[in-house]
Amino acid sequence: MAIRRLLPLAFPLVSCVLASTNAHAHHSFSEYDSASTIEVTGKLLDVAWQNPHVHFTLEARDASGKTQTWDIESASLSILRRTDATPDNLKVGDTVTFAGNPSKRSPTRLSGTNVLTAARTEVVLVPGMKPHWQTNAAGLKTTWFDGASTGDAKLGLFRVWSSKLGDSEAQPASLWLADYPLTPAARKKASAWNPVTDVVAQGCVPKGMPTIMEEPYPIEFVQDGDVIRLRIEEYDTLRTIDMTGAAASLPKTLLGRSTGRWDGKTLVVATSRIDWPYLDSNGVPLGPNATLVERFTPDDAGTRLNYQLTVTDPDTFTQPLALKRAWVWRQGETVKPYNCQSR
After folding, report:
1. Which of 71, 169, 206, 215 could form an SS bridge with 234, CB 3.0 to 4.6 Å?
2. What are phi and psi of 227, to 5 degrees?
3. CA quadruple 146, 147, 148, 152: dihedral sign
4. Is domain 3-124 given the CATH code 1.10.10.10 in the classification?
5. CATH number, domain 153-328
6. Whether pLDDT at 322 is above 70
7. CB-CB neighbours of 285 under 10 Å
C-alpha cells in the first residue's frame, strides 16, 4: 500500500462542481491543492454514498510503512446520481486506489476525483473529469452538460430548470463576481472568514439567501394559490413567494421573506428580513438589513431561464450589486430528495 505524487494536472471542472457549490455544506474545497494530484492505495474501511459529499475512509501506509487513515471526499450524491458512477464495485475491505487533490491543511485528506476498484475498473467521481488510469470508466456518462435544443415556451416559468456545466452563464459559479465593492468593515470581515471553524459551514446546515441560488442542482417553480413555491434540491429547500405582498412584515428567516409580482413573463421577487450572514460560499458577508430583487425570465424558445439578482446592502457594499446566472430546461429532469447526512 503506497502513496504516489504525480505531476500537476489541470481539472477545470473540479472547481466548478466542487469549490463553488458546497462550501457551506461541509467546508470549502479551497482546502485542496487543485494543481497537484496524488494516488493513495489502501484498504477501504468505509463508503458513505450520500449528500452533502460522498466520503470514503481508507487505511494506507506511508513511505516508512506506518499505517494512516485517510479521509477522502468527493462530489455530492446529487451530483453523482446524474452520472453513471455507482458504489457497486466499492466494497469495504477491498484494496483500492484513489487519485485526487491533496489537502493543504491535513496530510491524510484528499479530494478524490477518480478511484480504481479491486476489480480494476475505474470510477470517475467528478463530472467532466477524464479517466486517470483507463481509456474508459464509469462516471463518464452524465446529464450535467445537457440542455434542450428545442423548448416549449407554453410551459413558461412553471417547470424544472437545471444547471449546465460548461455553460458560462448556466453553471453555479456564474452568479458570483471575482471581486466586490466591499466597505472597509466588510472587507476585513471577509478576510477573517474561516470555512473550517465557521459553525454554519459544518455538517448539514442549510444555506440561506442569496447563497442558496448558486446551487448546482435542479429547481422547480410551482403555483400554489396566492403563493409560488420554489423547490430547490439542495437541502430540500423550499422558498415561498407571496404574490399578495403580506410576507414582507413577518419575522426574519434563513431565506428571508419574499413577495412577488409579474412584469410580463418575468417573475420579480423582492426579499428582505434575511437571517443569514453571507452573500456567497466564500465568506463575503451580508448585512442584517440587506434587500434582494430577483428577476426570473424564461427565454422565448422555452429552453433557458435567465436570472438577475440585485443586492442592496450599505453595510457591506459601497453600491448595489448586479449579479446574474441562468438555468436550462433539461427534459425529464426532476427535483430529487437531498436527504443530507452529517458525518
Report:
1. 215
2. -125, 155
3. positive
4. no
5. 2.40.128.20
6. yes
7. 24
- Per-residue pLDDT tens for 256-304? 999 999 999 999 999 999 999 999 988 999 999 999 999 999 999 999 9
Domains 3-124 and 153-328 fall in the same CATH topology: no
Predicted TM-score (pTM) of the model is 0.88
pLDDT digits (tens, 9 = 90+) for 89-139: 999 999 999 999 999 989 999 999 999 999 999 999 999 999 999 999 999
Distance separating alpha carbons of residues 78 and 219, to the nearest angstrom: 13
Helix ranges, the chain (H): 12-14, 77-80, 184-191
Across the strands, what pairs with 40? 3, 98
Tell me the torsion sign for CA atoms 330, 335, 336, 340.
positive
Domain ranges of the chain: 3-124, 153-328
Determine the distance from the C-alpha atom of residue 304 to the mean position of all C-alpha atoms in its chain, rounded to a whole number: 20
Ranges of H-type helices in 75-170: 77-80
Q: Which three cell numbers stand for residue 178?
A: 471575482
Which residues are registered as beta bridge partners of 227?
224, 242
- For residue 207, give the C-alpha cell: 444555506
- Other Cβ atoms closer than 10 A to 337: 9
